[in-house]
Amino acid sequence: MQRIGVLTSGGDASGMNSCIRAVVRKAIYHGLEIIGINRGYSGFVDADMGPMNLGSVADIIGRGGTILHTARSKRFQTKEGRALAFENVQRFGVQGLVVIGGDGSFTGASIFQQEYGIPVIGVPGTIDNDIAGTDYTIGFDTAVNNVVEAINKIRDTATSHERTFVIEVMGRNSGNIALAAGLAGGAESILIPEIPFNVEDICKKLLSGIKRGKLHSVILVAEGAASGIEIGQEIKEFTGFDTKVTILGHLQRGGSPSAFDRILAARLGAKAVELLMAGETNKMVGMKAGEIVASDLSEVIGKASPINKEMYELAKILSI
Amino acid sequence: MQRIGVLTSGGDASGMNSCIRAVVRKAIYHGLEIIGINRGYSGFVDADMGPMNLGSVADIIGRGGTILHTARSKRFQTKEGRALAFENVQRFGVQGLVVIGGDGSFTGASIFQQEYGIPVIGVPGTIDNDIAGTDYTIGFDTAVNNVVEAINKIRDTATSHERTFVIEVMGRNSGNIALAAGLAGGAESILIPEIPFNVEDICKKLLSGIKRGKLHSVILVAEGAASGIEIGQEIKEFTGFDTKVTILGHLQRGGSPSAFDRILAARLGAKAVELLMAGETNKMVGMKAGEIVASDLSEVIGKASPINKEMYELAKILSI
Amino acid sequence: MQRIGVLTSGGDASGMNSCIRAVVRKAIYHGLEIIGINRGYSGFVDADMGPMNLGSVADIIGRGGTILHTARSKRFQTKEGRALAFENVQRFGVQGLVVIGGDGSFTGASIFQQEYGIPVIGVPGTIDNDIAGTDYTIGFDTAVNNVVEAINKIRDTATSHERTFVIEVMGRNSGNIALAAGLAGGAESILIPEIPFNVEDICKKLLSGIKRGKLHSVILVAEGAASGIEIGQEIKEFTGFDTKVTILGHLQRGGSPSAFDRILAARLGAKAVELLMAGETNKMVGMKAGEIVASDLSEVIGKASPINKEMYELAKILSI
Amino acid sequence: MQRIGVLTSGGDASGMNSCIRAVVRKAIYHGLEIIGINRGYSGFVDADMGPMNLGSVADIIGRGGTILHTARSKRFQTKEGRALAFENVQRFGVQGLVVIGGDGSFTGASIFQQEYGIPVIGVPGTIDNDIAGTDYTIGFDTAVNNVVEAINKIRDTATSHERTFVIEVMGRNSGNIALAAGLAGGAESILIPEIPFNVEDICKKLLSGIKRGKLHSVILVAEGAASGIEIGQEIKEFTGFDTKVTILGHLQRGGSPSAFDRILAARLGAKAVELLMAGETNKMVGMKAGEIVASDLSEVIGKASPINKEMYELAKILSI
């Protein structure tokens, strides 16, 4: 292993830059060369790539997003596209690949590895924390902190006006962001795709809270569970309360990464380089029970990453 | 003047608490008593009010929202409602009133003063910065900083994905928040109700930016100018760009007040007490050209507060 | 178990309030009564305590510090002081005690339990993360984020002036804060008490960095390893560089708790109540390998909590 | 005027980058060329300078510090040094100079202009807000917000431990940062060089506050007024209170600029270019009474910028 390629793929996540920095510096520390591939598989197909050095990653540790950019590539999903990517692998002398992204990105990496034999290591980078094989994905902690900060601000106005607020958060098919931010932010109800819910029950809880003197309520809705706007409408109809809806959208992704995400990103990125150096392939690095570990990509791709039910129950108990 | 009442009314704004603290402490410093009226004119009508002391305002200087709460009151708009409020004025011995709020709140205060002769002083507290007679309203600086912070986060993801983002911000009929945040955040285009705009021109600017190598664009839309969702749709249709829309909503209002808002709030609140002590009435305090001044409420209510055209032109020049 | 007492002791840590809230709400959820004890063991001796309800913990989830206050108590270290505390236990009907604090606080709890048989459960709350039996203590993640944020700001000025900065951080005898913040903040060198260091080596690294084009350097010093001021002086003498020193001090403790600390605090607080309800005593709750677990206090008190050597090596590799 | 040079000099201030961006973009908008001079007058003497374009200032609007770096230059204080700088003026075809900095930087600019006739315009960039001819300098609002944020965090721990905290802040010979941050942060006492103070009086106020039930106190000390460590020692001796000292140091300078500083920087930078285009020289741009104005450098250099006494009195009244 003399030259490693690195790319970010899928939705951007805060901490991806800290991970790129770790991959580059760890590789250079061990005397390897490193090729940065821009715009995910799209740049891989288009040869939008080039050498990186220590200076390429100076001053990026604290910046959100990814300096390598990211994109969805339809062409890499075709045999022709992947053939072009392999040409670029040969042209740039890439002998191993670090792919920072989510489930879809790993699927692409796995197929490419099978077709062309180039070693690939996946690093879980997505705010959704929905990847099997790791307790945390890069970007999740920052996203949860972004949501908690937004809840804090909205709670100021909710308290002042004695209103009910519905906040829709990201997470695709996963309720992880909603659950963690809801527990951390003290949300009165948390609606996630993993647990059936009933708007009538939520409204009854709201009404009994009001009776007990609660001045406001915050309902967190995972985008995979329901539409915040529809839930807001239903609550308004049932309770008659002045109900406002906020859809946090893409601001959840950005911002300077949290310390937790930076450390996770550094450890995972360095481990990915170690695995390539050790001749491994088709693995994903992850953090399980506090340890940095490697799983087979086949055990990760398409596998469910269940929510923590104990945390869900706790959130319910603490929001009485 | 022995006893002053204070209330917050209309939309909450960060810094209202700093202002309440200043009113209470300034009054107590001069040996006055102070009555806090909860939930705006609603609590005034309902006698939801009571004495405040130094301890009532301990530890609130840095908290968003308003500890006195705020509400819209339909009853205070009726003669009967105001008669009830006057009964409470007599019952609680209130001899002067400080009203922290916006245009509608001042209208109510002015009518009440004319009917019952009780001295009133208005303090401009609204994130919209749309009040004549003051260069800045309490809450505006914090709201603009909230929007700029959101732009920063969205720009991380916009850059990573090379996307166009439309961000809808508050301001009711005013473009002040959009203009200030757009200039501070480096938005590519700013759509405000005070200046006619044309989506085609915006799109052409986007396209020429892309040609020149710009990787992303942020368009700021004041809620009074257009719907962010509609503008996003039109841009997508015209340019074919992957265009995302974020509606910041109520998180703009909250959060710990900025230093600027805290100082403004302290100065305005103290001045309001001074005016009541000096026998003044029907005035609004404000900051004009760096000085704390008083205007007649009649010169303020319903008057336009034009945007700074020079800043608008500057924002255009700097976003080339 | 009908009535539980809760206190915070030792240095305050952000997230203690989230933990108090969890203890109170979890207890009330299960029909228990809860007594809040103010100012740590000091209030325990002085009967500065009283019942808490749902309202006592409203709106505290996001506030730094501890609403129960904390203090060091010399009297509780005496037999007489503990006898007074036991009188208060009887007077207030306290049947079990949750102690949120660090090593010293657990020692006091353990002695008290042995002498009077009252069940006690410890919850690790200290920014230092130096407690055996848990991977994380409440307040550590927030403190590390505070330090990283300070590094970010100092790096702006360090880069602009091309200077070397020495930043002294807290941690008493532990290098955990320095190590985590140094890895997350990209510090050029990290000085901790667990690992011998040599200022000459640090200076040589600085000089070779400058040669390679580095414009600035940040050195993190754990207070238990050395004095920041002395290290700054030595570096200045050896290298001749314009070296500035910042001692972050108590601002590391405060601020709204991070999402991670809030969730950890909620889970640990709830578990402490569960243990008391299950008839347990002399335990500390903690998070090990992602799970909430209980350890015997005797296995925790006075035990070393070693740093993560792998992380230390990684920080060195990434700061080349 | 075809080609303008721009440099930053003296202590760095957050918002300098927003100002550089405005100078560059405004100049390019009007068809001018722009030369960036690195490391202040030091780079001017050493020819460390080169052309800037739109891309040079992409993505810097929200970054603290200055991309042009800054340094103190002893050589520019000599005739020989300035002769070298003039050679570089001729070599790079610079026809006008924008100097972003403080009093010392303007002095250098003024002498250079007198000796070599090259038009110079000063832009006030310093966190100290101690420049005559402008109500605000670039970086002041951000620095004050940084201090207020630190006060917030320290207050959490101060309240929890019922302690007295002394916080030393920057400002050189000016009390402006201490005064603004003290008023905004609700400090119990503010020690500034412009107003005589007496530690005994401060202690008596502390003691009477404690009697009245205050749980903690925060004393702000401007570095130009006294040493925080000495004041802390004196308070401890007089009152016997557990008194902690924090010296905020360089973290006050950095961080992403506030919206206020970004807007101020944009307006001042653009105005500086306009003045050069209009054939003006030896002026400083500033904001007076909300308007962007120009003053003669001779009326600015060495002139006192008095504090706002009304604000000082208000801070005293509100801290009863």
Automatic annotation (TrEMBL), chains A, B, C, D:
GO terms for cellular component: 6-phosphofructokinase complex. Residues 3-276 form the Phosphofructokinase domain. Its main location: cytoplasm. Transmembrane segments: none annotated. The keyword Nucleotide-binding applies. InterPro entries: ATP_PFK, ATP_PFK_prok-type, PFKA_ATP_prok, Phosphofructokinase_CS, Phosphofructokinase_dom, PKF_sf. ADP binds at R21, A22, V23, V24, R25, R155, G186, A187, E188, R212, K214, L215, H216. ATP binds at G11, R72, S73, G102, D103, G104, S105. One of its GO terms (molecular function) is metal ion binding. Pathway: Carbohydrate degradation; glycolysis; D-glyceraldehyde 3-phosphate and glycerone phosphate from D-glucose: step 3/4. Allosterically activated by ADP and other diphosphonucleosides, and allosterically inhibited by phosphoenolpyruvate. PROSITE patterns: PHOSPHOFRUCTOKINASE (PS00433). Its cofactor is Mg(2+). Substrate binds at T126, I127, D128, R163, M170, G171, R172, E223, K244, H250, L251, Q252, R253. It is found in: Cytoplasm. It comes from the Bacteria. The keyword Nucleotide-binding applies. Its EC number is 2.7.1.11. Mg(2+) binds at D103. The active site is at D128. Pfam families: PFK. Keywords: Allosteric enzyme, ATP-binding, Cytoplasm, Glycolysis, Kinase, Magnesium, Metal-binding, Nucleotide-binding, Transferase. Homotetramer. Catalyzes the phosphorylation of D-fructose 6-phosphate to fructose 1,6-bisphosphate by ATP, the first committing step of glycolysis. Belongs to the phosphofructokinase type A (PFKA) family. ATP-dependent PFK group I subfamily. Prokaryotic clade 'B1' sub-subfamily. This is ATP-dependent 6-phosphofructokinase.
